[in-house]
Amino acid sequence: MVLHDNSLNTFVPSALFDADNLGSYLQYNVKIFPTDYFDYDEISSHQLQNIYIPYVQFNNFFIDQFGGFTFKNVNTAFLEYIYKPISLQEFLLFTVVFQNIILK
C-alpha cells in the first residue's frame, strides 16, 4: 500500500458528498489545476470522505514497477489507526500499565 502524504486534502461528511464534484471540495483549501486528478477514501466509521490529490507520477511509477497496488491519503490511514476498535484484553492491559506508571 502506498500512502500519499501531502496537505492537498479535505474531509467532507458523507451526507454532503458527491463523487462527481471532487474538485469543488478542494478549490477553497488548495490551488487546483484543470489537469489535477482527484481521489477519495471512505472513512465509514465516521461517515466521512477524505478527498485528496494523489501524486500521480508516483502511482504510475509503482504500476510500472510492481503492477497493481492500493493507495490512500496518509490522513485516512491515521484516522483508521487511531479509531480502530481495541479488544477488552488490550484495554485492560493498557489500564494496568497506565495505573502502575501513575502510582509509582
Automatic annotation (TrEMBL):
Organism for this UniProt entry: Paenimyroides ceti
InterPro entries: DUF3822 (IPR024213)
Lineage: Bacteria, Pseudomonadati, Bacteroidota, Flavobacteriia, Flavobacteriales
Protein known as: DUF3822 family protein
Pfam families: DUF3822
